[in-house]
Structure formats: structure tokens, C-alpha cells
Amino acid sequence: TGNSISLTDISENGDYLVDGSISTYNTTSNTLAVQLLTSESLTIASTSTVYCSASDVVTLSTTTSLSGETFEWQRDGASINTSSDAFDVNAAGTYRLVLDRNGCSLISNEITISPIDESLITLDPSGDVVFPEGNSRTVTASGGTAYRWYDADNVEMGTSSSMNFTTDGVYTLIANIDNCEIARQITVTYLDTFKVPNVISVNGDGINDQWVLPNSYSNRADVNVIIYNEKGAEILNVFDYNNSWPSSSMAFPRQNMVFYYKIRNANGVLKQGTVTVIR
After folding, report:
1. Which residues of the chain have pLDDT under 70?
2. CB 63 within 8 A of CB 43
């Protein structure tokens, strides 16, 4: 009977009007629809916030029971699903769940699912890794949630963000960003501490009598060393060259004879040039 009324529960939702009297004058007000919002919260969660590809599965879900409820999953504000309690994402975007509560929209938190950005995985140092034989170099990865390092034989070497390399070769890093995998290849080579010689002196004094190659080319089963004479005829063609050319029995009839060499591997020519033999 007062001039105001307090509504505190959604069970009181409905149409309200007031009957008023002034002396002998009675009248009825307009009708006012009152809809109180629910005080409950609606929360959604996702198995990841990164969408890798069409074969990837990112699932959105809520702990609130949706059985018998009217609801819709939305991406970027548009309805995309009205029947699944848990929803599998098939595209990047901003997602939320909207639940009808007594005619009012109960809106969940928003979750943004982003496409994978491979540039998020960085290596320090970047590019090829070069160091002198007998030394080592550490490579550190960042931007991922997990890491796996593999050698050339696909044997796992470690799972930390850093790897210390002591031998040359081609290595692979598999970095995870949530459920997405990104591969990085790391090529490790030895720094040549001296160049391929272009002059040798076969005078038997034990100094510079053989053509000695850097460690990156000698004593390697995957490196082919070929030497030609001045007429282009092959006089040496070996893998795993052991720095033994020329042999002590090899004759050099002229002074300052020039030979040509090629150093190759399976990918092509690594070095080529001339070597002059001084008697």
C-alpha cells in the first residue's frame, strides 16, 4: 500500500501496475514489465587458445549444466551452435556462451582463439650455428610451451628450452605452443681454423709435404675429394680423405706442377681450386 515496492528475487519477475485513490477518485497506472537479472555467473573454458589447422581440435565447455536450457555459442557475436554442451572450434575468433535466464541473456566470459603464428618460436642464435671443433655452442628457444630436440637420427636429445651442441650435424627442434607443433632445423658446422692449402712442398723435410685439409673436409665419410692433373685426368678420387696425398712414391717430373681439386658432398661442390706442388 506504500508508494514504492522492493523486488529482490527473479521469482518476482512479471507485470506490475498500481491502483491509486485521491479522495473519491480512483485510477490505475500503466503496466510495467519487470525482469530482474540473475545473479549467477557463467564461465567457459577452452583446451587451448591457439588454433593450429583444420585437423586440430580446440574444445570450449562450461561447468554449468545446459540440459533443458536455451542457449547459443557465439563466435564474434554471431550464433554458431545451439545444441552442444561442449563445442569444438573450427576457426579462429572470439567465443562466448549466451544462456537464456527467464528472458534475460546470461553472457559468459569471452575466449579468443588465435591462429598459430610460427614466428613466435625464436632461436638464439638464429641461423646456422658455427664454432671451432672441440668447442661447443648453446642454442636457446623461446616462445613455446614445450620443446623436444632431436639429432640427425631422430633420437631425442632433451626437452629443455636450451641445447648445448658439441658436434656438427643437422638437428631438429619440435616446439609446442599449447597443442600446436612447430619444427625448426638447426645446422651445426665447425669453423675452419685454416684454409685449403694451395701450395705444398714435397722435398721430404716433413713440413708441408702433404696436402692437409681442414677438419670439415678431411676424415669424413660423406666428403669426396677429387684431384685432377693439368690435362684434366683424375689422379685421386676418395671419400674419407686422410691427408695423405701425395704419397712418397709419387713422382713430379717438373717444378711447380699445378693440380686441380674439387671437394664435394651429396649436396654438391663445397670447395674447388688449384694446388701447386713445389719440389
Report:
1. 10, 36-39, 192-194
2. yes
